Amino acid sequence: MKLLIKSGRVIDPANNIDSVLDVLIENGKVACLQKEITSKADKIIDASAKIVIPGIVDMHVHLREPGREDKETVASGTQAALKGGVTSLLAMPNTCPAIDSSENAELLKGIIKKSAQCNVLISAAITKSRLGKEITDIAGLKKSGAIAITDDGASVDDEKIFLKALQKAAKEKILVIAHCEDKALSKNGVVNLGFISTKLGLRGISRESEYLRVERDIGLAQKAKAAIHIAHVSCKESVEIIAKAKKKGITVTCETAPHYFTLSEEDVVGYDTNMKINPPLRAKEDLAAIREGLRSGIIDAIASDHAPHTENEKDIEFDRAEFGKIGLESGLAVCVQELIGKQILDWPELVRKISLNPAKILGVDKGQLSVGQDADIIIIDPAREFILTKETIVSKSKNSPFLGRKVKGVVEYTILSGKIVYEEVCK
Amino acid sequence: MNKEIAWVRKDLLGLEDLSREEIELILATAESFKEVSSREIKKVPALRGKTVVNLFYEPSTRTRVSFEVAAKRLSADVINIATETSSVKKGETLVDTGMNIQALKADIIVMRHNYSGAAVMLARHLDISVVNAGDGWHEHPTQALLDMFTLKEKLGKIEGLNVSIVGDIAHSRVARSNIWGLTKLGAKVTVCAPEMLVPPGIEKMGARVTNDIEVALKNADAVNVLRMQFERDDENAFPQQLEYLKNFGITRERLFKAKKNILVMHPGPLNRGIEISSEVADGVNSVILEQVTNGIAVRMAVLFLVAQGRDKKNETLN
Amino acid sequence: MKEKAKVLDKEALNRSIVRIAHEILEKNKGTEDLCLVGIRNRGAYLAKRLAERITEIEKAKVPVGVLDITLYRDDLTLIAQQPVVHKTEIDFDISEKTVVLVDDVLYTGRTIRAAMDALIDLGRPKSVQLAVLIDRGHRELPIRADYAGKNIPTAKNETIEVRLSEVDGADEVVIIEKDE
Known about the structure:
The structure holds three protein chains of three kinds.
Chain A: E1 2-12, E2 17-26, E3 29-34, E4 43-46, E5 51-54, E6 56-61, H1 74-83, E7 86-91, H2 102-115, E8 119-124, H3 138-143, E9 146-149, H4 159-172, E10 175-178, H5 183-186, E11 191-192, H6 195-200, E12 204-205, H7 208-224, E13 228-230, H8 236-247, E14 252-256, H9 284-296, E15 301-302, H10 311-314, H11 331-340, H12 347-362, E16 377-387, E17 406-416, E18 419-423
Parallel strand pairs in A: 1-4, 1-5, 6-7, 7-8, 8-9, 9-10, 10-13, 11-12, 13-14, 14-15
Antiparallel strand pairs in A: 1-2, 2-3, 5-16, 16-17, 17-18
Chain B: H1 20-37, E1 51-56, H2 61-73, E2 77-82, H3 94-103, E3 108-113, H4 118-125, E4 129-135, H5 141-155, E5 162-166, H6 173-184, E6 188-192, E7 207-210, H7 213-217, E8 222-225, H8 241-248, H9 252-256, E9 263-265, H10 278-281, H11 288-308
Parallel strand pairs in B: 1-2, 1-3, 3-4, 5-6, 5-8, 6-7, 8-9
Chain C: E1 2-8, H1 10-28, E2 34-39, H2 42-58, E3 64-67, E4 98-106, H3 110-122, E5 127-135, E6 147-151, E7 158-163, H4 165-168, E8 172-177
Parallel strand pairs in C: 2-3, 2-4, 4-5, 5-6
Antiparallel strand pairs in C: 1-8, 7-8
Helix pairs in contact in C: 1-2
């Protein structure tokens, strides 16, 4: 089986490629990148005026299975991923049960084997049931396939426990992903603390609740000599703290999500529960700081933090609604619209943030188009605009904060190990 | 007042959304309705055949009764739903409850809810009118309107008045609605509370902030004293009760230093001896009971106007 | 919309009011227990003018009130423009009085029906009479005027506009033809 992608603008930051090339895929691997490949192929895709990049590696996805199959399943979530150009994703362990034991990891692996449509990487919990009390069997979980540990959705409040977990992680050479939130400070908050929370009469979540925890976690990771990755950075001070740590040579990486450089607390006015996200949509100045962090390279990666919730959990009073929003299908288009469109990043830099860097941080052999690599490739029409509507969403849940928004950049093909697994229907 | 202005909203959710002209229209309409309550036969047929549902998720006798009296004086039929007696406790969602009330062919839902934004959300889902009778800490538009009506009635105008609001500003929907309404009509608003009870950014709503009760009372034409709900202090933000009276309570001694004719208002129910002394509550400056009377006229006006709201098909909120 | 004809000019309008004043006094044999209630908006001004004429003739004061009937209308949900509610201003007791309701134009009779409901909510008059400047026909309710300045048969696509100097800057009555 040979697949030939003709005349696309191929962008592969790992190999410093950004030029119009043909890509030949053979036996599921990248076989050749060249101008004018003439060899015969079973299928030829004309990609002229299109962009050809390594598939997106989304390092922050809640697939909800096992346990909350009403929100999302491995099957539906990975189907949504393919539509969004995501070929590999890291599944968060806050399922029911949580991925806090080898048995549960094996259970998840079974589901993945049966129904995953794209590469699903596994992360495990730091503590049992993510309660922050008892550290999980990190070595065993690693053996079962976990490539990172995180209590995402919660922070390990007890410093001693977290330090110990970091030390174990360092020993096992496994990445720790930190959800930075001091719940004692953010308690019962539902929206960024400030004028908007005051105006709407909603409890605020302070910025301190995030950045003080970022500071603590980086410090503890340094002490333990562990690799730490800060999830969903949302505020200015967090970016500053990470910048300082990087300057000092501390091993820390971080990600942000499309909503943090696109939306602000002002979008919560009207009590749209799809705007209820944790960490919350912050102030305009934070939005600017996130953009600057992406531009300067302080922020390494962009991940969706895809967090599906059913209508029943969202179409209720703001205080009672679940936190989170979906993002697998809209992520790339929002990046193109907001980052490329506003010249915050150019294409090679964007590909670095969405494909190459997440793969590097997770230590997986993805996110690049080197010869011999798995042919996980997406073809994008960068100029085409569309409006995101509920009807077009593949994910089981429809809680997108970008509904009705005009975005740019359509994934036309998603190729996984050399096979076309998604092709835009109504081209 | 601009006579051309027409009421087009199906709902009244808060004063933030309203224009100065819309607020003035409500107040002018309320003036006409006040006369109705002074008659022997306190009833007009304006809402005959209409059904008003009081949907109260929070106990509130006075607001509920005030709306009920208002609706009845307009000849509407009134149904009261309180959480204890409804399916709310069985876990029915707010939207489902609203849709059911709409299916009963009610015309107006008057809702009190403990969560901010609940009325906004309900109104977005329904074609029938929603009147916000208080949602969380967000807004309590009819309370602010009756406060403004009372000010206008007593002092002849609102433009240029100095109005101070004293108490738990952070958790007060009454404070928020008053700030929006009063500033739109040209009053100067000061909020006064202990540091912990001043919410961030409140000055961006147009209010001056002070932690000093003397400053708040100086030059004030009216002081609106908020109820201190000590029982609800889940954030340990409240000072001790006695300390509060000492530092922020409205007492006769404090009023001596204020303008002689300062109006003392309170949305009720009173915590005598905590935020206000009995002498002041019952004194010559107090207009607390007149507020109650005026509440009926204001609510009649609101019910009358939303019932005629011309944009029933359109959402008022985008 | 165009003006078809002027049916009353200033002098004619004034003569009609004087005549109605005389008729009211004649029918009620003086001003005892008599009061006038004008229906907002122009009926209120006409009532005031009638009272002045009556005082001139009889040298006696007649109480005058203003009635706002917005809340009693039967077409609140039909009319295009949101009506502005005004106050009813009747600062005397109408019980056991002879109340003369005053309006500018009598047409379907619905306004008068609403006015009678509003009036009866305020007390129990001995009798209610109706004075109008123009009766243009097309009644939809069993109501007739006790005093009419002028009967003007009209077509349905016409309207009568009574203009009074207090609000319109001139005293005149015209027929307006609506474009079909």
